[in-house]
Amino acid sequence: MLEYVERKGTASNKWDGLTETFGADGLLPLWVADMDFRVDSHITDALADYMKTGIYGYYKIPDSYYDSFIEWEKTEHGFNVEREWIRYSPGVVCGFNFALQVLTEPGDSVIVTTPVYYPFLHAVTNNDRSLVCSELVNRDGRYYIDFDDFENRIVSENVKAFIFCSPHNPVSRVWSAEEISRLLDICRRHSVAVISDEIHHDLVFSGSVHTPTMCLAQEKDRIIMLTSASKTFNIAALRNSYVVISNPEIRAAWDRFMTGLRLNMGNPMGYVAAEAAYRHGREWLSEIRDVITGNYEYIQTEFSKHLPQVVMTPLEATYLAWADFSCYLKPEEIQPFMQDRCRLAFDYGSWFGGDQSGSFIRINLATSRENIMDMVNRIVNALA
Questions:
Q1: Which parts of the chain register pLDDT below 50?
Q2: Alpha carbon 233 to its chain's center
Q3: Alpha-carbon gap, residue 285 to 298, rounded angstroms
Q4: pLDDT for the residue numbered 207
Q5: How far apart are CA 282 and CA 288, in angstroms?
Q6: Nearest C-alpha neighbor of 218 from the set 184, 244, 191, 252
Q7: Could you tell me if 173 and 206 are in contact, meaning their C-beta atoms sit under 8 angstroms apart?
Q8: Largest Cα–Cα separation, the chain
Q9: What is the Cα–Cα distance from 363 to 194, expressed in whole angstroms?
Q10: What pLDDT is stored for residue 328 in this prediction?
Q11: What's the pTM value of the predicted model, to 2 decimals?
Q12: Are 223 and 191 spatial neighbours (Cβ–Cβ below 8 Å)?
């Protein structure tokens, strides 16, 4: 049985870090993408057993850690990962920043498909690369890739790398195998390396099926895949993510870069938690999926009754709802309305890049139904 945790006052960034981001405290936070539920007891038990040893010296990563991930990917996603392909990153965001250093040079152009998780945008500019954006096409709330625009921008801007979000945050798309293959064909034609962020690949709904990008790759494709148990099982603070590289030349380049950083392994507790999650977390994950879909359906039903012109993007993946308020609020009105009138904290559409998302909010669904009901009531009453 899932257990909701009151996180205010627990040094939670989502609940206790509001002032730094929003300039105000006391908001109901539905922004940062972590969950308000206690993790699976198998994880806490495994961590407790490790802590009881009373010895926290240098750690040797056990083979069982790698085996648990390899088995999970094979069983859940049909992806046969080889042990020698797996490398470490403290997080997926760190990972795609590192990958840009490995695959590109300062000044190189890097393409993303907007709106997209805003650390993608920051990674490109913070690493002195040139940001190129290809806007996704919004058709009645569902998003599609403009393949012609994507390829034209690659050619015109001499793009060297593509940071791919699969499934896509914030628009909740699970890309089909055909869509991914078409992207890879374009990148292959123009010698574009691919950095594939697949951190949400276990949080897939509505009969959608996630296809790992590397399952569709050819032998010489330059691809780095990034994923983690952190989003799936709410263990992000333990700083443990997987980097999967099948191309031996790219893998050697990654190893050289990480050796220069002296960052080849992480905290033991991250390894312990990830292994426990992948070995024992399926029942817990099933329960959290039910909570996420239930919260999404509640919002969709209530908005359709009271605010019928709000467009909710179909929830195919992630625990992040993407809602379009453009029929009610202008881009410059959305944050003051939600924050000052409704006392709510969201990630706002303008943060994600592109030209069409100024009146959108991204809603974290991994919280209690009571919080979701409170949010809906505040918005409905204020707009009414």
A1: none
A2: 13
A3: 20
A4: 87
A5: 10
A6: 184
A7: no
A8: 59
A9: 28
A10: 97
A11: 0.96
A12: no
